[in-house]
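Note to self: user wants both folds in one dump. Writing first protein now.
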Amino acid sequence: MEPRYDTLFYDGQCPLCAREIATLRKLQKGHLIFADIHQQTALDALPEKELLLRRLHLMTWTGEWVTGLHANVRAWSHTPVGFVFKPLLWPGVFHVARKVYERWADRRYDRKYACTVCSAGEPG
């Protein structure tokens, strides 16, 4: 059977994201590829860069895009502790967890990229 590799697109300029990716790299079982959005040269085949930075994106081995909380749970499913994240997809829990994730992701993006005051001193 051919190995099945998912690709996780992450914000390599975000310290919190970098810590989570470092942990995922250590724990993953070898079928998760990590792609820093800022190092991608062939963005033509990818969603718009802002969308990639605003929400976590994962491309499955079949070419399907998974985003947000689903992408996070799928990425962690490549580790021995993935079972801890699965309850986030349960119907009652998912509704709340998705709202919390999206609010956090929007605030993170706005502070890092959309806030003119925050990004005034950062290089383009």
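First done. Writing the second protein, which came from a different request thread.
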Amino acid sequence: MTEPARLLTVTPRHVTAKAFLLVVTGELDHHTSNLLTEAVNEAPFSEQSVIIDLSGLTYCDSTGISVLITAYNRSLAAGTQLSLTGVSPDQMRIFELIGLDQVFVFYATPEEAATALQS
């Protein structure tokens, strides 16, 4: 029996004039990270803050973490904010273990992040 294909989808959309959203669903790993990398490269960091919603993320390996760090570095260079939303407790534990809870800004939902960006 063959293993099912690993799927990842990244859906981009404008939320507000100040916020751009990337909704990530599925498994983020070595085989699928190119999809999020492409979306991060196309995101308008110089014009808007970016929110990455991970509520649909079912798996993330170190390659996926590297893509998120790249997104953070793009936001830092552009002078905009990167927010992560929908991070599960298991994912948050990984962020805490490697110290990224001190780097990223976290919100429960994309709506909460967008509201905070309006302030």
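Dump finished. Worth passing along: The mean pLDDT is 94.
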